[in-house]
From TrEMBL:
Its EC number is 2.1.1.63. This is Methylated-DNA--protein-cysteine methyltransferase. NCBIfam families: ogt. One of its GO terms (molecular function) is methylated-DNA-[protein]-cysteine S-methyltransferase activity. It is found in: Cytoplasm. The keyword DNA repair applies. The active site is at residue 116. Keywords: Cytoplasm, DNA damage, DNA repair, Methyltransferase, Transferase.
Length: 163
């Protein structure tokens, strides 16, 4: 297992590779750094994403979860950059329940690369986000992608929707 940490405009992250695939993306900085060609490529793609130059990742991913979680994560990867789906929309698409989709989102081991931030609640609410920084991080990612305007993001904060 190898790890590479990086700074992003939103938060520090650590990418973990095992057996030729990305297995996790964690919040924060790891003291255990071991660069591999795949991790360098993942960092390059993430840098391009945060610079607004990349809208789809092309990396081997191997998230570990239940069959249902893997089905949800696969469907999330099909949501285009700059778009969102509600928990209910994704549940209908894969024949599941919205709450089960929410649980799978919360257990996503590779956030950003598997874009759980693109799953929102109905009625214009953000829903939840298990990543460090919670809904502030989710909002920042959606603003970065253009799914929310800066003004919409500020309005959510002023309404107390990020707490």
């Amino acid at each position: 297992m190898s790890q590479l940490s990086m700074h992003t405009p939103v938060i520090d992250i650590t990418i973990t590779e095992f057996d030729g695939a990305i297995v996790s993306l964690d919040w924060g900085w790891s003291p255990f750094q071991e660069s591999t060609p795949l991790l360098v490529e993942a960092k390059r793609q993430l840098d391009a994403y945060f610079d607004g130059e990349l809208t789809r990742f092309d990396l081997p991913l191997c998230p570990m979860g239940t069959k249902h979680q893997e089905q949800v994560w696969k469907a999330m990867r099909e949501i285009p950059y700059g778009e969102t789906r509600t928990y209910g929309d994704l549940a209908s698409e894969i024949g599941s329940a919205a709450q089960a989709v929410g649980t799978a989102c919360g257990r996503n081991p590779i956030p950003i690369l598997i874009p759980c931030h693109r799953i929102v609640a109905s009625a214009g609410k953000l829903g939840g986000y298990s990543g460090d920084g919670g809904l502030y991080t989710k909002r920042a990612l959606l603003v970065l992608e253009g799914a929310l305007t800066v003004e919409e993001g500020k309005a959510l904060e002023e309404a107390g929707a990020l707490d």
